[in-house]
Design goal:
heterodimer; A: 314 residues; mainly alpha; MetI-like fold; 3% strand; globular; B: 309 residues; cell membrane (chain A); UgpAE/MalFG_permease (chain A); membrane (chain A)
Chain lengths: 314, 309
């Protein structure tokens, strides 16, 4: 055996001796995989199973004890027939179409702007923008709730003195007041992901652009923005998934206004079916629909982005 | 047989861009102040006000009496009575706020630590070994990243209540120990940062796979592990839906869930408005402080995920 062969075996990981490492690999994976099965695969399978069941009354007049019967896709049909459930989907889609672009535009603008500042100021401001991420969604919603309610809110107070009478909790506005809470929570976090991406770009590229006479604006739009793309894709996917799960913010705002109903979002709807109406089978169907919608939208977004990338590369 | 072992040299694939730190970025020549510059500073200042104003309001509001909370201008102090308010927060209902705080620390601390170790081991295995089923596991992990966790919480509650786990600490802890995104980050990091030569050398020296992982690999992967831990800690601390679904005993609640019980009961018991505000303020402090200190680690770890992802 020579040094040469040793080197080839080490540099080609595919040719590693099998038996022992194989067992070791599964040893390392086992704790995670076991818990993953328990908390992801099993609940998903159970939800699908439950969504196919329905209680069937037996005996004369259907007063006997209820047994579980196979319902086929009845629960799905029932969920999709409820106009409130469909409306909740339309609502979060509209919400996402507006909130996600606004938030990512804000995050990108802040990231690019911070990139032109001196190190010290950028650090202070970055920390200020990132701070809300450390505040739980519940508490952020309670906080903004106080800032929306006339009587407590200094914002309503000040705008009132200026002759305006904003109604943050009215029927037309409350969805956007909730969007504001979500933007406040996550814009700084997304900004940080983009900043991290910008920091990974070799500085030589900026130097070259500067020598070529590119202005700060040109550097930002022509060089930094395209290179920040992977970060934008990542934050985009997470925002889509997050939007579909919207729950805490409307739940906390709900006591403050009649504009937020108990089926305001798909998640609220499923929660209420399960715990207020005790219909766990319908709730299971709604959960499965939610999971499906989330995967269709996030996969759709990813393949759209990838296709565009391939086309641009050509 | 003389085999010259390729010794572990310096980490081969240093994930950090070489020379990036050496270059100064703020050493550009100063020209006159341009209007675009003023616009930029104005934008950044307005943004800072937007992000900080609610926190400032919370600080001011937490010093007020219930009457002043509603009767005085929200952005300025009026008759501050901080010690009184905060001691109320901690003494109300036999000090239930202490339980909530302790529970949050327990859920986020224990859940975050175990999730990080499991993700580190799994990510390392996926990055370094070639074995059958590797691609399938990784695809399942990616699907797990994209699945909305709240859609799984309801069926998980039904399963847990069948085996008597609902309304126990485990009901929140077990799901908190699983982080598919953590596995994803750890795999990417391990691929770039764990040198194959180092592993071979250790094997030749007779170290077992677990010992190699426990001594060498964990140390090499520290930046990624810190990132995953922070993600998971914040995620668990901020989580609301899972404990809401799983727990019914308010002594097992984390802070997030506890505070909403005060907030919703404030209609009937107005003193709870002040307690909600005070409790919110207290609960924001530790995480906000951690956020400011740790954002440096967070940033460098995140880079690994987004660059290759």
């Amino acid at each position: 055996m020579s040094t040469e062969t040793t080197r080839t075996t080490t540099s080609a990981p595919g040719s590693r001796r099998s038996a022992r490492p194989d067992r070791a690999a599964w040893g390392f994976l086992l704790p995670f995989v076991a818990l993953f099965l328990l908390t992801f695969v099993l609940p998903l399978g159970y939800a699908v199973y439950q969504s196919l069941l329905t209680p069937v009354r037996s005996g004369p007049l259907g007063l006997g004890p209820a047994t579980l019967g196979f319902a086929g896709l009845d629960n799905y049909a029932l969920a999709l027939e409820q106009s409130a459930f469909l409306e909740s989907f339309a609502r979060v889609l509209l919400f996402g179409l507006v909130q996600i672009p606004v938030m990512l535009l804000l995050s990108t603008t802040l990231a690019l702007a911070l990139d032109t500042l001196s190190h010290r100021w950028a650090g202070i401001l970055r920390a200020a923008y990132f701070l809300p991420y450390g505040i739980p969604g519940v508490i952020a919603s309670i906080l903004w709730g106080f800032l929306y309610v006339p009587g407590v809110s200094p914002i309503v107070d000040l705008l009132g003195k200026a002759g305006l009478a904003p109604d943050f909790l009215g029927y037309g506005n409350v969805l956007w007041s909730i969007a504001n809470i979500v933007i406040w929570e996550f814009a700084g976090y997304n900004m940080l992901v983009i900043v991290a991406q910008l920091k990974a770009i070799p500085q030589e590229l900026y130097e070259a652009a500067r020598i070529d006479g590119a202005s700060a604006w040109q550097t930002a739009v022509r060089i930094k923005l395209p290179l920040a793309r992977p970060a934008l894709v990542l934050t985009g996917v997470f925002s889509i998934i997050g939007t579909l799960q919207l729950f805490v913010e409307p739940l906390v705002i709900k006591p403050l206004t009649s504009a937020v109903t108990s089926s305001y979002t798909p998640n609220l709807s499923a929660y209420n079916e399960a715990f207020a109406n005790n219909n766990i089978y319908l709730a299971a169907a709604e959960s499965v629909i939610l999971a499906l919608a989330a995967s269709v939208l996030s996969f759709g977004f990813l393949s759209l982005v990838n296709r565009k990338e391939r086309r641009d590369a050509r | 047989m003389s085999v010259s072992t390729p010794r572990a040299e310096k980490p081969v694939a240093s994930p950090h861009a070489p020379g990036a730190a050496a270059r100064r970025r703020d050493g550009r020549p100063r020209r006159g102040v341009k209007p675009s510059r003023i616009l930029l500073v104005a934008l950044l200042t307005v943004a800072a006000l937007y992000f900080l104003l609610p926190v400032y309001w919370l600080l001011v509001a937490s010093t007020k009496s219930s009457a002043d909370l509603f009767g005085t201008f929200g952005l300025w102090f009026s008759d501050p009575q901080w010690p009184h308010n905060l001691s109320n927060v901690f003494s109300y209902d036999d000090g239930v706020f202490w339980s909530w705080t302790w529970n949050s620390v327990l859920y986020a601390g224990v859940g975050g630590t175990l999730a990080t170790l499991l993700a580190g081991a799994a990510g390392y295995a996926l990055a370094v070994y070639r074995f059958r089923g590797r691609e399938a596991v990784f695809k399942a992990v990616l699907a797990g990243v994209l699945l909305p966790s709240t859609a799984l919480a309801l069926p998980m509650y039904l399963l847990f209540s069948k085996v008597g786990l609902a309304n126990t600490y485990w009901a929140v802890l077990i799901p908190s120990m699983v982080s598919p995104f953590g596995v994803y980050l750890c795999r990417i990091y391990a691929e770039a940062a764990v040198p194959t030569e180092m592993l071979e050398a250790a094997r030749v020296d007779g170290a077992g796979e677990w010992r190699i992982f426990g001594t060498l690999v964990l140390r090499t992967m520290t930046p990624a592990l810190v990132t995953v831990f922070l993600f998971q800690f914040v995620g668990i601390w901020n989580n609301y839906f899972l404990p809401l679904v799983m727990l019914s005993d308010d002594r097992k609640y984390p802070i997030t869930l506890g505070l909403t019980t005060w907030q919703t009961a404030a209609d009937r018991t107005p003193e709870l408005y002040q307690l909600t505000v005070g409790g919110a303020f207290v609960s924001v402090l530790p995480l906000a402080a951690a956020m400011l200190v740790l954002q440096r680690y967070w940033r460098s770890g995140l880079t690994q995920g987004s660059v290759k992802g």
